Amino acid sequence: MDCDRCRAALSATLDGEDPGLSDDERQRHLATCAGCREFAAGAARLHRSARVIPAEPVPDLSAAIMRSIDAEPVPAPQAAPDRTPSAASVDERTRFLRISLAVIAVIQLGMAVPALVLGDDAGLPTHVARHLGSFSLALGVGLLVVALRPDRAAGVLPIVAAVVVCLLGSSAIDIFAGRANPGAEVSHAPELVGLVAVWLLARAPGETARQQAHPVLG
Questions:
Q1: Residue 116 in contact with residue 137, Cβ under 8 Å?
Q2: CA torsion through residues 126, 127, 131, 134, sign
Q3: pTM of the prediction?
Q4: What is the pLDDT of residues 59-82, one digit of tens each?
Q5: What is the pLDDT of residues 162-210, one digit of tens each?
Q6: Which residues contact 21 (CB under 8 A, 6 or more apart)?
Q7: CB-based contacts of 39: which residues, under 8 Å, 6+ apart?
Q8: Which letter, b or e, does each residue of 18-55 get, where b requires 16 or more Cβ atoms within 10 Å of its Cβ?
Q9: What are the E-state strand segments in 5-95?
């Protein structure tokens, strides 16, 4: 057996690999070869020194660690204040809008009664007065429905907007044409306020949805 093959087998044995030679073959060669015996002893020493290496010295940080534990904790940064409206404020605003709509609806219904029942509206013919009373009654009922069920605001809004816009537009035309007194047209302010209130309720479905289970004012 040559020395290179024996030394390769010795190195493989130290590394836990297959040496390719039996132990008897290695021992017979070592018994007759002083060079390979010296190689085997040196390889064994190098293998032990590589496996057992003294730990590197590190500084003792125990005192600093204990001081940091005893130190006063640094306060956490305060979060920015939440500027979203609270549920209480949202409910209060919704309640105010509903009460306002209920009041305006009662006013509209009260204004519709003389024209609708008695046919009396500022000297207009009875038939025309009753038609106008019907529109006033319909507007009052629509506002009252939204006051009681704010989740219906989005559905009622187009109808209320059409009635109020046409009413205010025709009033503006008559005022500029000299056919109407501006002071008398101020009486249409409740309709405008009612339209704004319905719009505010319709644009906040998250607020009005909470009222579906409690449709009664309060």
A1: yes
A2: positive
A3: 0.48
A4: 777 777 777 776 656 666 666 655
A5: 888 887 888 888 788 877 777 766 777 888 888 888 998 888 655 444 4
A6: 1, 5, 6, 9
A7: 3, 7, 10
A8: ebebeeeebeebbeebeebeebbeeeeeeeeeeeeeee
A9: none
> What span, in angstroms and rounded, lies between the C-alpha atoms of 156 and 144?
11
108 touches 190 (CB < 8 A)? yes
Distance of alpha carbon 139 from alpha carbon 87, whole angstroms:
30
C-alpha to C-alpha distance for 21 and 41, rounded to whole angstroms = 18
Structure tokens that stand for 180 in this block: 């109407």
Q: Which of 194, 203, 207 is nearest to 102 (CA)?
A: 194
Comparing CA positions, the residue from 138, 179, 183, 182 lying closest to residue 159 is 138
